[in-house]
Amino acid sequence: MAEKGKMLQKGKGGMRMVPVNESSASPFTLPEPFWIPDAQCQSCIQCQGKFDFLNRRHHCRRCGKCFCDTCSSTKLSLPRMLYVDPVRHCAGCTGISKKENDFFEKHVKALLAGGSFHVNQSGETNDNDTVFVCKLSPDHRHLHFENANRRLDDISMTDIDAVQIWTEENDSDGMWVLEF
What is the chain's mean pLDDT, rounded? Predict the structure, then answer.
C-alpha cells in the first residue's frame, strides 16, 4: 500500500510541501525547473546587467533563469510547485503565476467545495436533466458526480481534454448545465 501524506522538503528555491508518494501528487503540480548554473550566468537575461559583488544573480523559481534583483523582485505564491512561502519570479513568469493563482483561488476551491450541475448525458437539453453535486477529489485527480438517488462514474482529470465555462447558460435556479 502506498504511503499517503506530505512532508516538508528543502528545495533549491525554498521550502516545499511535497507528497510522500509521487503517485498521490496533484495532476496540477509542476516539477521544479532546471536552474541555469551560476557559471553560465554572467549577466541578467532581461536587462543584460553584468553580475558582480553588488549586482547579484537570482534564479526565477518558475523558469530557472538568472536575473538581477530588479528584474526578479516580485514574490508570489507558487502552489503548482508546492512552495510553502511566496517565491521570486521574473517579469515573464509573474503574469503566468498570477493567472494560475487566480484559477486555483476561484475555480479549484469552488470544485473542492462542490457545486450543483444539471447533467445531460444525451446531448439534448430537456427538463429531465438530473441535478448532481460535482466535487473535485482532495487529491485533484477525479471529479465526483452524485445526488441523493444516483452516482455517476468518476471522471479522471487526466481524461479531460478541454474545459469551457459558459456564464450565460445557467438556468433559472442558478445551476450550471454540464454536458458530456
Answer: 81
Residues 6+ apart with CB under 8 A from 113: 135
- 171 has pLDDT over 80: no
Q: Are strands 66-67 and 74-76 parallel, antiparallel or unpaired?
A: unpaired
Q: Tell if the pTM clears 0.85, that is, is over it.
A: no
The dihedrals phi and psi of 143, each to the nearest 5 degrees, come to -100, 130
CB 110 within 8 A of CB 40: no
At residue 24, the 3 state secondary structure works out as: helix
Say how far apart CA 107 and CA 79 lie, in whole Å. Answer: 14
Residue 141, CA atoms < 13 Å, CB-side half-sphere: 6
* CA 167 to chain CA mean position, Å: 22
Where exactly does CATH 3.30.40.10 map onto the chain? 6-110
| Superfamily covering domain 6-110 | Zinc/RING finger domain, C3HC4 (zinc finger) (3.30.40.10)
Our measurement of the distance from residue 85's CA atom to the centroid of its chain's CA atoms, rounded to an integer in Å, reads: 16
Q: What is the dihedral of CA 98, 158, 16, 111, to 10 degrees?
A: 60
82 and 17 Cβ atoms separated by less than 8 Å: yes
